[in-house]
Amino acid sequence: MDKISTEAKEPKRVRVRQIGLRLGKYPRGRYNAITDVPKVRVGHCTIVEGEGDLQTGSGPIRTGVTAILPNDHDIFAQRVVGSGFILNGAGEVSGLTQVTEWGLIETPILLTNTLSVGACSEALVQYMVARHPGIGVEQDVVIPVVGECDDSWLNDIGGRHVRFQHVVQALERASHGPVAEGNVGGGTGMVTCDFKGGIGTSSRKLPQHEGGYVVGVLVMSNFGCMEDLRLDGVPVGRLLAPEYSHFRQRQDNYGSIITVVGTNAPLLPHQVTRLCKRAALGIGRVGSYAAHGSGEIVLGFSNANLVPRETRKMVYRMKILLDQRLNPLYQAVVEATEEAILNALFMAQTMEGHSGHVAPALPIKRVREILLAAGWVPSRPRKQSEQKQPEGAGS
After folding, report:
1. Apex CA 68: angle with CA 5 and CA 228, to 5°?
2. Is the pTM value of this prediction over 0.70?
3. Which of these is catalytic: 294, 302, 338, 391?
4. Contact criterion met (CB below 8 Å) for 389 and 395
5. Residue 340 region, left (φ>0) first, then alpha (ψ -120 to 50), else beta?
6. CA angle (42, 47, 50) in 5-degree steps
7. Is-catalytic flag, 296?
8. Which numeric CATH code is attached to 16-43+68-107+179-350+361-378?
9. Which of 106, 296, 335, 338 is catalytic?
10. Is 24 in contact with 55 (CB distance < 8 Å)?
11. What integer pLDDT is reported at residue 248 of this predicted model?
């Protein structure tokens, strides 16, 4: 119950920066996570049970829930500006239609497996109605925001094992600070480029002369083919493929990715949409071509302005960043998205799912050798104590 699968002999996992690779030009935030955006919290519930052949309804189970809370306030009463972008739509973020219509997000954001979207939506409605009995009576109804990816390679997805208590655990565990990555929460059973994937996060902080804003990204990464994997432009996957051909999944199982972008820059909904579009460029940098059967969906929010659900005022005044000042945010979100995906790969551990299916961990030592030969990393990576800011792998 609520544990993370590990391999005893597997070396300690590290984030991508800890091998010496520096992605982009902007500095990261304190935790290099979406929680560097002020007031944002993240929580996970991880479900790993059973082993052996698939018995639908019984297991093995390799799944979970990740919750993102965009502000420290009651988001039902104090909504945040939101929007999204669909690069390829063979996936789902429930509630996205209303988000893009109103330009507001009014529930926590949940990430889980494809067949547990309904269970998470039901649980989130129950959770919110218990706190706001007027929902559907004196107040509007709510449409929960829930994103999904297919974890059926490792998980008994047809068993639909995510329950109300798992959603509540993820919500109640949501906190500021470091964020756990890899085989956790909604990312427990996810695979990226034939290696174990999952949850990853990163952030960028703009200098004061460009606004000083923070852009944070969290991904549930579950896409791609090994040969296409790239690290800062280096075709690492193509070089690893001959060594890992026995781990290959079926060729038509390309997968998906849900990307959540948060910022404290004061943006209007159309500006959040434009920011989300640039996150898709970060996904492409790692090797995605948004295949026919994949779902690359980006959800974004700005918590700089809190829009009240109930007020006696006629007009609500908002701070707005001028469109011509958006370029630094665009570059920052591309960098953070790329690094978030790589952090998911670097932090994920080898996992055996049902029926002997195995998703191997990305071989960090071998990857560093490839990058070293390409001149992309220094001969000796800096120790964590030498880094200017903590990486915050989380737990």
Report:
1. 60
2. yes
3. 294
4. no
5. alpha
6. 165
7. yes
8. 3.60.70.12
9. 296
10. no
11. 61
